[in-house]
Amino acid sequence: MDGRAEDGGRVYQASGDQHINEQHHHYGRDGVAPGGPDSVRRPAVGRLPVVLRDRGEVMERLRASVGADRVGEVFVLYGMGGAGKTAVACALFEEVTAAEGRVGLWVNAADRASLRAGMLAVAADRGADDAELLAARNGLRPAADLVWRYLDRSAEPWLLVLDNTDDPEILRDGSWLRTSPRGTVLVTTRRAAAHWWPGAELQHIGVLPREDAALVLRDLAPNCGTTEQAARVADRLGRLPLALTLAGGFLSHQVLDPWTMDSYGDRLDAPDPAGPRQPVGGAARRRSGHRGGRCAALPACGVRPAARP
Ligand SMILES: Nc1ncnc2c1ncn2[C@@H]1O[C@H](COP(=O)(O)OP(=O)(O)O)[C@@H](O)[C@H]1O
Ligand SMILES: [Mg+2]
């Protein structure tokens, strides 16, 4: 698999093959959700935090926004890639569906096809019949109108998450983003410009405070050093949750030849002995032979977080 970091972040490797294991978990109460494995009733997300660090304030605001019969609003979580927007949306989704008695609906809005398929699955979930869905799929009736008609008629109140909406044009073009007296919409996006989100409440998701960033490392790699040592590595990684998660995951996997936080930080600061680095998935990855050892493994955590929001 190719390594990728968003918003100008880069994943580098020093030498040899790069092996990144991505585990995909689907979260839901009891591990069973209505509607099968691709259901919109559960977040279709990758790695979730061991513990969601910091974020108490934004969670409190979001909780208030879906509590006590509040409906008809759109909330937008914006911030750079890897900052933890999806993680916050997911935490709210889990809370709301567990405690508040709302139906949670999760759509990946990263591209047109996925948005459209997800929204039609939402209509199906809310009661649209096969003939209506077929007509919408075939372009014989406006798909967004169908979806929102069923959302407006929903017997249960709902929370609709539109995740990874980094290309808001696709929402606007299909008129997919609306409000409803029956529910709340939560969007995650890297695009903050207010004109994309008229009438919505915007919440910034930024990098973590120093101590929380250190705790993300320690949650994943508790035996590699003190919180202060972890904080120094966290600073070096820009306190970006994605970078911290990759680094913590890397450290926790060095079982036979464990690394400390300090040695990790030193390696990040050291000049690369292999010369100019290659992006993961580039020529170096295609060279034959896995050289093994630390050198090949280090860059799994060598994410250079982007400075730009
Ligand atoms: N507050 C947090 N505490 C701990 N880990 C986090 C936190 N926020 C995000 N992460 C982890 O960082 C990674 C990137 O988060 P994600 O929500 O996918 O970012 P975004 O949606 O902004 O691109 C994920 O592996 C996630 O589990
Ligand atoms: Mg995301």
From TrEMBL:
One Pfam family of this chain: NB-ARC
SUPFAM superfamilies membership: P-loop containing nucleoside triphosphate hydrolases (SSF52540)
Gene3D superfamilies: P-loop containing nucleotide triphosphate hydrolases
Biased composition (Basic residues): 284-293
Annotated segments matching region Disordered: 267-295
NB-ARC domain span: 59-192
Protein's name according to its UniProt entry: NB-ARC domain-containing protein
Organism from which the protein derives: Streptomyces hintoniae
